Amino acid sequence: MSEMPAVSEMPAVSEMPAPTARAVDVLVIGAGQAGLSAAYHLQRRGLRPPGQGGAPTYQVLDAEEGPGGAWRHRWRSLRMATVNGISELPGQPVPEVDPEAPSSEFITRYFDDYEQQLELAIVRPVRVSAVTRQDDDPHGRLRVDTSAGTWTARALINATGTWTKPFWPIYPGQETFAGRQLHVADYVAAEEFRDRHVAVVGGGISAVQLLDEISRVTSTSWFTRREPVWRDTPFDARAGHDAVAMVEERVAKGLPPLSVVSVTGLLWTPSLREAEARGALDRRPMFTQILPEGVRLVEGNVLPVDVILWATGFRAALDHLAPLKVRGHGGGITMEGTRVAGEPRLHLVGYGPSSSTIGANRAGRAAVNDLLELLSRTGAAAPTGR
Predict the structure, then answer these.
(1) Quick one: which of 24, 54, 166, 172 is 20 to 30 A from 72 by CA?
(2) CA 187 – CA 326 distance, rounded (Å)
(3) Three-class secondary structure of residue 337 per DSSP
(4) What is the spatial order of strands in the sheet that 283-285 belongs to?
(5) Which CATH superfamily is domain 19-164+315-377 in?
(6) By C-alpha distance, which of 1, 33, 86 is closest to 363?
(7) For the segment 19-64, what is each residue's pLDDT rounded down to a tens digit?
(8) Is CATH 3.50.50.60 correct for 174-229+265-310?
(9) CA–CA separation, 253 vs 332, rounded Å?
């Protein structure tokens, strides 16, 4: 792996920049895995924070209070031994892993060290509310309105992920339920459900991980719309390639991306085999109605339930891009690699085929390469790095 070129007198992660530093060549929104990858490649190719001479400039805006992206919010009981897998950030390998370390702490610390050592141009907390075109010039600037004022940019890399947009399905009688309903985004620990019957809804990795955990302290029921697909073989490079290809095909057609598990299936682990032996993975078809005291099963009888945990996934957090009108009639965005087909100044990383950690790293590099070609064609100063 190539070394990061020496950079002198670059600012560390900082507070809000001065008003005169609001115009940049490339703006990155989000500082999770995909956003940090994009920032690394921008800096490696010669872009600098605002105010450093005549070099092309970049800035990263992050809505979080500190480093870590979505990992800051993962439930504390999720340990490094049970996470679905992480990938090293470009230019800096993952340090030695303690399998018992909470993933939220370990990965947040890794991201923090990465930002500080590379002195990436990140400002936080900054929430982006809207991205608009300043004028009708297809090579003009994009305006980015935020909680900390306005930035303008020649090009934009969006890396906002999904964690801030949990998906809640709607079912008949949902508003009448007398128990507790929560999404996996709000989950803290299994102990809070002790002596309650918990219905877990969803067929993804989070659902089975939480079923495993919660079933150790209380009774559970598992509901999914479709029969889960399990795989006994490892998720190797070929399987990963095939999964990415399927998602790429969808987004190239402007269709919403599929969830990862819908393509890959669920992977058996020793812990999940134990959960299966306890009966925690005895899947039921989706209930037909929610009642104050529980749920109505497809057979017609009522199952008493105290808690409904919706492990129903997330949607891409792209509401701030709505003014650009890049979504098609089917709700998806037509993509050409990481580039939005109808707006060459906009790239989405961590979206669709690049939603995995490995995919996010590759997407960050691809987006930077494409955007630097765009900047060279539209009159921006040429970056000097490679």
Answers:
(1) 24
(2) 33
(3) coil
(4) 180-183, 307-310, 198-201, 220-224, 283-285
(5) FAD/NAD(P)-binding domain (3.50.50.60)
(6) 33
(7) 443 899 999 999 998 999 999 999 999 998 887 767 789 999 999 9
(8) yes
(9) 8
Among the listed residues 203, 352, 354, the one whose alpha carbon sits nearest the alpha carbon of residue 266: 203
Dist. CA 317–CA 322, nearest whole Å: 11
Query: Which distant-in-sequence residues (6+ apart) come within 8 Å of 116 by Cβ?
Result: 12, 13
pLDDT given for residue 331 in this prediction: 78
Q: Is 1 exposed, middle or buried (0-12, 13-18, 19+ CB in 10 A)?
A: exposed
Place of tokens 């939005």: 340
pLDDT at 318: 93
pLDDT tens, 189-219? Answer: 899 999 999 999 999 888 999 999 999 999 9
Coil vs helix vs strand at 185: helix
Both tokens assigned to 225: 């719309």
Where do the domains of the chain lie? Answer: 19-164+315-377, 174-229+265-310
Q: Are 281 and 230 in contact (CB under 8 A)?
A: no
Angle between helical axes of 357-377 and 33-44 (0-180°, round to 10)? 40
Residues 6+ apart with CB under 8 A from 372: 45, 383
Residue linked to tokens 């060549």: 25
Q: Strand ranges (DSSP E) for 172-304? A: 180-183, 198-201, 220-224, 230-231, 266-267, 283-285, 289-291, 294-296, 302-304
Instruction: Enumerate residues 6+ apart whose C-beta is below 8 A from 249.
Output: none
The HSE-up count of residue 244 (CA atoms within 13 Å, CB side) is 21
Residue type, 64: E
- Whether the pLDDT of residue 247 is over 70: the answer is no
The whole-angstrom separation of Cα 73 and Cα 64 is 10
